[in-house]
Amino acid sequence: MQSTKDHWENVYLKKQPGEVSWTQEFPKTSLEFIYSFHLPKTANIIDVGGGDSKLVDHLLDEGFSNITVLDISANAIGRAKQRLGNRSQKVNWVVSDITEFEPHTNFDLWHDRATFHFLTSRKQVSTYIDIARRWITGYLVIGTFSDSGPKKCSGLDIKQYSEKSLESELKNGFEKIRCLTEDHITPFNTIQNFVFCSFRRRLD
What we know:
alpha/beta; Rossmann fold; 7-stranded mixed sheet
């Protein structure tokens, strides 16, 4: 049976951005959430499952200087580095399964539009939340397929979430700030409904 890592390495080896559903030229919703926190440009930011997403491009354009991009696929990160050219040297790149991630610093902002809904077992979800709770000192922005969204992505099963179920998963350690739903138009003009929520790390 093919491992999750091998699956994603093959996806990024064989398919171009216009051939995968998650491609987004301008990550408007993610950026609006990030801007709402009024973070200093030196804030520690991580994009979990960032792959070859262009969020990092826009964060660099905004002058953020401590950006980490994590993805399970070395091919995805290789593509992002190639796209950014010399600017890629300003980013900390991590190839890791998020459930095996061992950070070396705390994060003022943790962003995830691509990973959480692929965690379909209770153990995976609990491990992810434990890592996030341990290393986030500021904010969490998470985007997942909504309960009106797809049930599969890239041939893999996913877990759908509503605002209520996402808040419930993160209630131990995180306080919800706001949520919204969004229709993402894929490069092949299909619609995927997402729920996005922002949370504040509760340190009490």
